Amino acid sequence: MPKSISLRRWLVAAVTGGALLTGAVQAQAKPPECIAPAKPGGGYDLTCRLAANGLQDAKLIDEPMMVSYMPGGIGAVAYNHVTGVRDDDPNLIVAASTGAALNLALGKFGQQHKVDDVRWLGALGVDYGAIVVRKDAPWQNLDELMKAMKQNPSSVVIGAGGTIGSQDWMKAALMAKADDVDPRKLRYVSFEGGGEALAALLGEHIQVFTGDLAELKPQLDSGEIRILAALSEERMGGPYADIPTAKEQGYDVEWPIWRGYYMGPNVSDAEYQKWADRLEQLSETESFAKLREGRGLFPMSKFGDDFHQYVTQQVADFTQLAKDVGLTQ
Amino acid sequence: MFDFLIQGFGVALTPLNLGLAFLGALLGTLFGALPGIGPINGIAILMPLAYTLGLPAESSLILLAGIYTGSEYGGRMSSILLNVPGDAGAVMTTLDGHPLAKKGLAGPALGLSAVSSFIGATVAILGLTLFAPLLAIVAVKFGPAEFFALMIFAFASMSAMMGKDPLKTLIGAVLGVLISTVGVDSGTGVLRFTFDMPELYDGIDFVVMIIGLFAVSEILLMLEHAFRHDQDGEMAPIGRVMVKLSEVLHCKWAILRSSVIGFVIGILPGTGASVASAVAYTTEKRISDHDNSFGTGNMRGLAAPEAANNASAAGSFVPMLTLGIPGSGTTAILLGALMLYNINPGPMMFREQPVVVGGLIASLYIGNVMLLLLNLPLAGVFARVLQVPRWLLVPSVAILAFVGVYQLHSDLMAIYLMLVIGVFGYLLRKFGFSLAPVVLGFVLGGLMEENLRRALSISGGDAAILWQSGLSIGLWVAAALVAFLPLVAGKLKAKFLPAAKAP
After folding, report:
1. Which of A72, A199, A217 is opposite residue B201, by nearest beta carbon?
2. In a domain, A301, yes or no
3. How many domains does chain A have?
4. ipTM beyond cut 0.90
5. Which of A171, A252, A180 is nearest to A209 (CA)?
């Protein structure tokens, strides 16, 4: 018996050692890497793949880009990691979106984290918020919906794929605020992702869905839904040409959802600029335009310092908005 | 009307696509068998590969769908052999699968589960082909109130599992519900039980939970035995390897019932294989467990969840292909894969992309046959895995799972959490708790809470919404029946049966 126990110990040690060794070998290679701060398969995953596939197709990187996942804290874990651990890694970019800017503004990444803690690199595309109802809804345009909401804010059931304080809720809250309705009086239902919210809209459980424009193309094509307003600066082209903006209907609300990246705070200027140029070059290629369209994104070109400024300003705006709609003091 | 299917078979039967379906089935079986990888991560790993290889959309969808269905087959392996579920849908498989392996029937258990999986998937694919558009309309009628009633029904069915110690089952389920509340509250965005650790904001990952509860606690138990010089392997030697036809026939009604249950639950967006297999198992226990042998190695107790989890995997394609709404976490990723190809799945897909839809459905038929042919002989091979001593096998599997989980989180916190949950699981087992109710409480509790609160936000706080629709009333009645009927029936039996027997 004692003999077999010592044998056991050796074998267990060997197995563990082998596993660790594999890990060490893996850690040595240094291809470009994109961290998706979420579980596989979500929007951040696709944002990483947009860069990975695009850069590879356009031959702007020598080695394929690795996509790794760091879920946790709606992106806060990755933010911690890049500001603290891999703060100067010149091969690492992290996927981000308007949602990350909103979370920074709301202090959800931890009060100690500020927008300037990382270097905002650039965005490869943008989608816009949309106010959606079923095809048989009583409201033909935004004005009719807003009038009903003004009369009795809790008479309209709004739903979307995020919690109170999320992007989807902000869209509804800003609409309400544009018409002097208290956002906290809205009847808002949060679902697990836009897909479930859309199902609830089609199943007549909710009446209004605050979704994203390009995501809704299949349902728009089939005529299941009616988009009352696009939350973009101006009308979008193609299949969306008939959808008026909220602005032209008299409600000054815009909600762009950009898809972009940031890098560690201590990455050198030269390396940062190299990546910014790469993304800019990529966004100009024709093959990428196709890829972007397939992902349901509209063009957006802001790179390097230009983009850093943009995100910084956006976070400042969101901080103010959060106060206005009563989310923070 | 079935033009798309004929066209689809034409696509799926090309050598390349047949090869990919086989590759997907094989890899899927492996991904499912390795705890910690599972279908979602398997697809996420291979999605970029398929794209980089420049495969056309239908081919890469065939590959990825093969992985999905294959992993539902593979998930049972470690459930049966090691008592460690390979993925979410395989938790219920441990209940009767592992006891069968302990009796020396690992081979037949694996074979039976392959056959049940095959039948479950076939029923569901037929359902998908014939009724997809119709079913999709019914599926969206299932709103938060109906989901809440479904969860009540699932919890009520769990009373069937209570067995010897109802109190411990109840406590286990409540513990699971408690653990499910960790993280950002889905309604208001408030943080609950996160102790300022951003790693806990998203709640506790399902994989972390099951690897910790099952695999880590298993190792701790083995360590304890080793220190006390006990015999820890109470495994019987491996007997016969093939499942007998009579055994399959014995389970035929269990398999068919569970296939239908699995398919229906699979169609509903937001629920998946774990809920399907739990409802199928508990329903089957109610119907056919006459001698209270469920949980001790009953063939039907193994067949039911296996048929259901495969049926639900195929069922979750219904809302994806007809409405563009994912029916499960895995189909959500498949949707993402299609978007890489500029295809937006949705109501128009049957008309606009008949090649892709037809090819996918046809490949589900073909892949399913392949999986059966692959898995029947493999049953014998995998059963021999048990000849590897457990003290080597379980730690190796656990290390694989650790590496897998680390890969997915890039963060040691997940590993520490897994270890803590492992100690918790070990204590639960020492105190005689069964782990399945804890896991079910964890899965169902989260869904139940979310849907209750959604329903109440829709109605503005009026609880009457919970029993307003016909669907939800039906579910409430069913829940009441499964919870109270056995009590009443038991009393009636006690009253009349002895009297009837007396001459």
Report:
1. A72
2. yes
3. 2
4. no
5. A171
